[in-house]
Amino acid sequence: MPRFVVNVMLKPEIHDPQGDAIASACHRLGFAEVTGVRQGKRFVIELSEAASEQRITALAAELLANPVIEEFSVHPA
Length: 77
Prior knowledge:
Elements: E1 3-10, H1 17-28, E2 40-46, H2 53-64, E3 70-76
Antiparallel strand pairs: 1-2, 1-3
């Protein structure tokens, strides 16, 4: 069964409050060496038949990521 992985992250210039909360929790738990965290999403897409990476990229751009504030990458799994 063909699979693709799509990773979605906020653009670097976009503030990440969830990442900040995770970094703060790291410090409270004694992981003082953590200087920052960026939180994202990972999608594993299973297909019934082969599809091109360009087709999955179009799907990600249309449905999985908000191109105004997020960037994404597509990789065969």
